[in-house]
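> example.struct
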């Protein structure tokens, strides 16, 4: 009897003091499980539409417009649901709240760019009777991931007359794909002795794109000329138009369900379009919040947030000041700073999921696991927290309580072991403005690869968490 009492006392103590890592599926009833799968299906469709940052912004704007949102720069009415696009690759969407913006707003940031290959300014050339396109990789990739696989070409070209055209080749069934040929193993002995980071140089990431020569045998570079004629016929673009074009090479295969139980989504670009989608849908379901709720979608995060559509730019500042003017608050520097200092934000970005196959690079007590909900990352950076954004104790506690009070399944973890590497997000740029901010998002396997894997229950939990945050 004494042992039973002691066991009960121990269980009570554990329940009170020990944090258990809950599994999302254990808390879902049968109806919510159906929601998880239907939501994931819509997310999968979004991934297949939003292959580039421009396309992602376009799809999100179309969704916002369909839900009654209006362009802040052109709207003439007192509509409380507004958005603003900057240069086609930055987007901010707001639902105006009851309190003035100087009392602070609720911001969730994500980014819509992903690691990929870009075409060089002068990409097209002919060698040995074949036409190729030269590329320059964008963001942190393993170069060997991009050879010997089906690839697609997509992006925006501005023609010499100023008109634009969107190019998309390789996604439709029956449509030709592109590829970067790998060197056969029979001749790879020297390559295989090199480090993985070196055996495929960046200059070898060349796509083979054609072999049929132009019919005039007197012409120079007949295969290259034939490809240029094809592009002119289909898109009305010429070689000079490549120089300023935004043409990207991405995996041709669509995102799809993964796992024998279909519990995963496997697809390209989930870093960070999973957070873009979940924050977007959460905002679409936000009615009239206490504080204005704002979803921000940045570009250029994967290369350090450089550029005029990135988190280092003035794009968000311009949006907030335009929004103030719209609601009758004088858009002064003082009022902007009041808005910043009173605001709360989530830097919505993915983190690495524990992969037990490579357990030696993870610190198991402090890493995220698939199926255990949204992950809170108190600090980012590398080594001794260099280049980190770290949430203060008060704000980390506030977010934790918000999630606990609303039955949000969450966990806490870092990217990996301290000396193994690290990473950063856009959080530090908003933190520099005085905004309270913490990183959070779902864990994924294979981050930065052409085929990332996320868990459907984590995706759904992110949507629920972001909806709760917007309403706080």
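> example.seq
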């Amino acid at each position: 009897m004494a042992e039973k009492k002691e066991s009960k006392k121990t269980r009570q103590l554990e329940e009170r003091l020990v944090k258990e890592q809950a599994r999302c599926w254990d808390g879902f009833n049968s109806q919510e499980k159906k929601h998880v799968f239907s939501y994931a299906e819509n997310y999968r469709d979004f991934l297949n539409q939003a292959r580039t940052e421009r396309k992602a912004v376009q799809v999100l704007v179309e969704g916002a417009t369909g839900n009654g949102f209006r362009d802040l720069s052109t709207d003439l009415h007192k509509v409380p649901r507004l958005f603003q696009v900057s240069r086609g690759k930055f987007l901010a969407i707001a639902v105006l709240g009851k309190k003035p913006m100087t009392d602070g707003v609720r911001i969730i940031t994500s980014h819509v760019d992903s690691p990929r290959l870009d075409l060089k300014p002068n990409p097209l050339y002919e060698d040995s009777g074949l036409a190729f396109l030269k590329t320059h990789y964008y963001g942190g990739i393993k170069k060997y991931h991009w050879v010997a696989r089906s690839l697609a070409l997509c992006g925006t070209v501005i023609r010499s007359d100023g008109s634009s055209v969107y190019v998309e080749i390789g996604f439709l069934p029956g449509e030709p794909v592109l590829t970067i040929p790998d060197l056969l193993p029979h001749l790879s002995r020297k390559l295989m002795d090199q480090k993985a980071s070196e055996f495929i140089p960046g200059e070898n990431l060349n796509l083979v794109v054609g072999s049929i020569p132009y019919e005039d045998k007197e012409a120079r570079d007949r295969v290259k000329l034939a490809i240029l004629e094809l592009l002119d016929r289909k898109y009305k673009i010429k070689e000079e138009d490549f120089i300023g074009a935004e043409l990207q090479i991405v995996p041709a295969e669509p995102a799809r369900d993964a796992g024998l139980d279909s519990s995963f989504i496997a697809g390209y670009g989930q870093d960070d379009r999973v957070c873009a989608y979940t924050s977007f849908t959460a905002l679409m379901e936000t009615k009239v919040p206490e504080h204005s709720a704002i979803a921000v979608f940045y570009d250029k995060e994967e290369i350090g947030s450089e550029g005029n559509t990135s988190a280092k730019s003035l794009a968000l500042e311009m949006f907030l000041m335009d929004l103030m003017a719209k609601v009758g608050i004088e858009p002064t520097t003082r009022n902007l700073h009041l808005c910043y200092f009173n605001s709360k934000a989530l830097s919505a970005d993915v983190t690495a999921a524990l992969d037990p196959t490579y357990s030696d690079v993870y610190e198991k007590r402090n890493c995220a696991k698939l199926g255990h909900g949204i992950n809170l990352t108190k600090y980012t950076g590398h080594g001794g927290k260099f280049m980190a954004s770290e949430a203060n104790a008060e704000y980390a506690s506030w977010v934790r309580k918000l999630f606990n009070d609303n039955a949000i399944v969450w966990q806490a973890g870092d990217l990996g072991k301290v000396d193994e590497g690290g990473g950063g997000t856009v959080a530090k740029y908003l933190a520099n403005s005085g905004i309270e901010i913490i990183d959070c998002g779902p864990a994924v396997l294979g981050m930065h690869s052409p085929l990332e894997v996320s868990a459907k229950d984590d995706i759904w939990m992110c949507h629920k968490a972001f909806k709760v945050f917007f309403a706080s």
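> remarks
The radius of gyration is 24 Å.
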